[in-house]
Write a structure and sequence with these properties.
The chain has three domains: about 120 residues, no CATH class; about 40 residues, no CATH class; about 140 residues, no CATH class. Helix content is about 35%, strand content about 25%. The longest helix has 26 residues. The radius of gyration is 24 Å and the shape is globular. Pfam families: RdgC.
């Protein structure tokens, strides 16, 4: 279980529940198929193992927990709904000689969706997150802020309170990343790879993407001198992993190097469950080691008052 994308959140203060309490809370909202009146349902499912006896909170290294959120949904193509609404509205306007207003259109749309639910195709999708009690960080395995917020809201719904906020730095990460490009130097243990995204920090415009290039190239540096900043860089950490980091401290397109994989395999062996746990444990330990260094080199973490 290796995360390919990570959005990180900081817990404000101490975690307001134990993992045992969390297990009981998650059990009150298990994943299930949609009812006849639903287009989607969010719930929790065991990260590893099957059946009602499989834990919903998978504990790693005694102080971290893996959680899996499953979305059950019914696929109703938007184009089909749109065409059906259009046909119904046209029919009303022609037969009743009146204009159909927005509120009535919305009602028609809801009725059409309900009528299609029994014929809709069921889908399942899962997203994982890690609660690392040792660092007070939560790692969501998604590049999408909304999906991460949905997962956290679902946990908050069942436990009552989960005070978190997206990870922040005291300075915009783009300032430090731009300096790395200008100086052609990176902090210890980090290495620049050949991908970058340059844009204007104020307007967000003037976007330029460099792929597999020398980031010290005069053309790129001239753009920086003209005012553009590195709003995304692809970097490597030691010989463990490579990733793209952006101005929101989001880690994307993470790839794990052979040294990492070899260690995980050596620790986990051939058994599938053991290898799952070995990968997960090594990933968490690597993040614990890497994130404080990365945040320091990006200007330091801007901690909430209760976590400072």
């Amino acid at each position: 279980m290796l995360f390919k994308n990570i959005l990180t959140f900081r817990v404000a203060g101490d975690l307001p529940f134990t993992f045992e309490e969390l297990e009981k809370a998650l059990a009150t909202k298990r994943a299930r198929p949609c009812t006849a009146q639903e287009t989607s349902h969010h719930g929790f499912v065991a990260p590893i193992g099957k059946g009602d006896d499989a834990p919903l909170v998978h504990i790693v290294n005694n102080d971290s927990a893996l959680i899996r959120v499953q979305v059950d949904s019914l696929l109703i193509p938007e184009s089909v709904v749109k065409e059906a609404v259009k046909t119904k509205v046209t029919e009303i306007e022609e037969t009743q000689s009146r204009k159909v207003k927005k509120r009535e259109k919305d009602q028609i749309k809801d009725e059409i969706i309900q009528s299609y639910l029994t014929r809709a195709f069921p889908l399942k999708s899962s997203t994982y997150l890690i609660i690392d009690k040792a660092t007070g960080l939560i790692y969501c395995n998604t590049p999408t802020a909304k999906r991460a917020e949905d997962m956290l809201s679902l946990i908050r719904e069942v436990v009552g309170s989960l005070p978190v906020r997206p990870l922040r730095t005291k300075l915009e990460p783009a300032i430090s990343m731009t300096e790395w490009m200008k100086s052609k130097k990176t902090p210890d243990d980090f290495f620049l790879l050949g991908d970058a995204q340059l844009s204007d920090l104020d307007s967000g415009g003037g976007l330029l993407r460099a792929k597999k290039q020398d980031l010290g190239d005069d053309t790129l540096l001239s753009l920086i001198e003209a005012g553009r900043h590195a709003t995304e860089l692809r970097i490597a950490y030691k010989d463990q992993l490579a990733m793209s980091i952006n101005n929101d401290v989001a880690l994307k397109s993470i790839s794990y190097e052979s040294v990492f994989e070899e260690k995980a395999t050596a620790d986990g062996g051939d058994d599938a469950d053991s290898l799952f746990n070995s990968n997960l444990s090594l990933m968490i330990l690597t993040l614990r080691e890497m994130m404080p260094k990365l945040l320091t080199h990006l200007g330091g973490e801007d901690l909430p008052a209760s976590a400072a």
